[in-house]
Amino acid sequence: MEAVTVPAGEVVAGSVLHAGRLITQIENGRPQARPVLRALAPYCGRAQLVGVTGPPGAGKSTLAAALIRHLRGQGRTVGVIAVDPSSPFTGGALLGDRDRMAEAAGGDPGVFIRSVASRGASGGLAAAVNDTVDVMDAMGKDVVLIETVGVGQGEFDIARIAHTVVLVLVPGYGDALQAMKAGITEIADVVAVNKGDAPGADQTAKDLAAQGFERTGPDGAERWKVPVLTVSALRGEGVAELAAAVDEHHAFTGATAWRAAAERARGRSRFTAFVADRLRGELLKAAEETLGDTRPADPYGAAEAYVGALLNAHRTLSADIPGTEQK
Amino acid sequence: MSGEHIKVLLAKKKIDVHGRGSKLIARELRDAGMEVVYFRFGVVAEIAEAALQENADVVAVSVMTSGQLQIARDLIPALKERGMTQVLVIMGGIIPEVDFEPLRALGVHRSFPPGLPGGVVAEYIRENVGKASLV
Ligand code: B12
Ligand SMILES: Nc1nc2c(ncn2[C@@H]2O[C@H](COP(=O)(O)OP(=O)(O)OP(=O)(O)O)[C@@H](O)[C@H]2O)c(=O)[nH]1
Ligand SMILES: [Mg+2]
User: Fold this and answer.
1) What is the CATH number of the domain that holds A72?
2) For the whole model, what pTM was predicted?
3) Per-residue pLDDT for B122 more than 60?
4) A86 lines ligand 2 (CB under 6 A)
5) Where does the B12-binding domain start and stop, copy by copy (chain B) (predicted)?
6) Do residues A251 and A292 share a domain?
């Protein structure tokens, strides 16, 4: 509602009040958030970003809670961004992830959980999640967990945001498992077969492991064998092993060209998202003003001519974009 | 991003098994276009901490098995202490109407009796959100 400028220093100092307000402004696409995010940039880049994805009800939130407990036990502070779907009809949302994690958080100042509604915009959501990651990063959280909406519910590209993506599956998926394979090779760095306390988990894990999933690094050189682990989020079994696999992946990508390439890709996608956002808002408005009250007989032709002129003008701009580093 | 949505933190006691009413309210508010964080609390400080992290516009507490006055006595100062002075606080469930005025005095902006027609709570929230302050 209110849109005062949030003091960046307060966020860096760890103020949950100010960070919470800033995230709301980010979600609402408020321009007030932009200068604050810029001021936070120097404090970003330290957090380990872990994505938790998988089909609805697989146990993503419960597993996130188990990971929070484990990480807190290691003395690491945790930020959580938990995305749940918005209703396409009313725009409202029921955000239930926090409830599953409440026990793990329970007033611990080392844990900051934020529930986010998907608001139906997969592109816009990715931008908002990226910026929210920065807020938690700048606050000094050691690890930021990002729980996506269930796979197949308007997935946004978690692989472009997280350093490590944990794909949570459950036993007895049958044909759905076949469909998941695409996801495994495209996004999963670690596979967790959850509900290990239920029958069939070990068999599912064995079947998956037998497939020998591998991910190939950006230059085609390094390969990462995707580990498949059985866990029970409910009982906390296998969680330490899962956390170790995540850390191992993080260390592996950090030691190779992998992470640098990923960070470049993340930077690029944020640049384009930001540009697209402003173009949609401001340039479009300016274009309409150019049109004025005239009613073009040939709207398509007029649009073509306008965009052509715009691109021409863009070519005359300096080739260097200020604020970028040559690497 | 697309528009702004009223964010409601809807809390109920973890040890309270009555879940039907609060879930009904959660759905009603969602269907009114609000973003509802539903969660069960152990101690009242958890509500305030969650409201802070979520930057909730509204804190709604469902009380089915009494304790409303003590919850209010703990909750209002906990919210104020954290700087959440603009948040709208409401209660509902099985609360005797004789408690409504004492709850008001403690800082709960509005308490609702059971059996209200749908839409009343959403309408109250929409009319009062952003205008409240905790005194
Ligand atoms: C069903 C029921 C149960 C079921 C619950 C099943 C479940 N999972 O939900 C069972 C049998 C388990 C149960 C157990 C108990 N129950 Co019982 N239960 C009921 C009963 C009959 C109906 C409740 C219900 O579901 N109503 C339907 C829903 C839709 O309505 P509602 O809950 O009132 O919710 C509405 C409003 O209150 C409001 N609302 C609710 N929350 C909120 C929040 C906000 C912010 C707002 C604005 C509005 C709002 O919106 C809803 C829609 O209008 C009521 C009696 C009654 N007629 O209300 C007793 C009742 C609630 N139970 C009661 C009691 C005492 C108990 C027990 C303690 C009994 C015992 N001694 O063991 C235990 C509780 C154990 C525990 N740890 O919690 C008392 C509470 C007395 C009080 N508050 O002073 C009641 C009122 C019965 C009575 N007359 O004594 N109960
Ligand atoms: N038996 C068993 N049940 C589990 C386990 N982990 C989660 N569950 C249950 O599975 C259900 C869904 O868990 P959530 O953690 O909410 O799943 P989710 O993937 O976050 O669900 P969405 O966010 O709605 O997609 C709950 O009833 C959990 O209690 C587990 O290890 N074993
Ligand atoms: Mg979940």
Assistant:
1) 3.40.50.300
2) 0.92
3) yes
4) no
5) 5-135
6) no
Cβ contact A168:A52 at 8 Å: yes
**Nearest ligand, CA A58:** 2
Give the integer Cα–Cα distance in Å for A283 and B37. Answer: 36
Residues A283 and A204 in one domain: no
Domain range for B14: 7-128
Residue A327: its pLDDT value, please?
A: 44
Mutation target to probe the B interface, by most B beta carbons within 10 A, among A18, A30, A32, A95 is A95
CATH of the domain at B101: 3.40.50.280
Query: How many residues are recorded in chain B?
Result: 135
> Whose structure tokens read 């079994």?
A237
Q: Specify the residue for token string 């967790």.
A: A192
Pocket test for ligand 1, best of B64, B103, B111 (most atoms within 8 A of CB): B64
Q: What's the structural domain count of chain B?
A: 1
Chain A CB contacts of B82 below 8 Å = 16-17
Q: Rounded mean pLDDT of B103-115?
A: 96
Angle ∠(A273,A282,A265) on CA atoms, nearest 5: 10
Contact B40, B67 (CB under 8 A): no
* ipTM summary value: 0.95
- Give the pLDDT confidence score for residue B30 in this predicted structure: 97
Query: Is residue B27 within 8 Å of residue A87, measured between CB atoms?
Result: no
Domain span at A306: 265-317
In a domain, B107, yes or no: yes
Atom 73 of ligand 1, residue of closest alpha carbon: B17
Both A269 and A251 in a single domain? no
Tell me how far the alpha carbon of residue A82 is from its chain's centroid.
10
By the 8 A CB rule, do A36 and A132 touch? no
pLDDT of residue A173: 64
Residues of chain A short of pLDDT 70, as ranges, are: 1-3, 121-124, 151-156, 173-182, 318-327
What distance, in Å, lies between the first and last C-alpha atoms of chain A? 41
Residues A119 and A218 in one domain: yes
Spatial contact of B6 and B124, defined as CB atoms under 8 Å apart: no
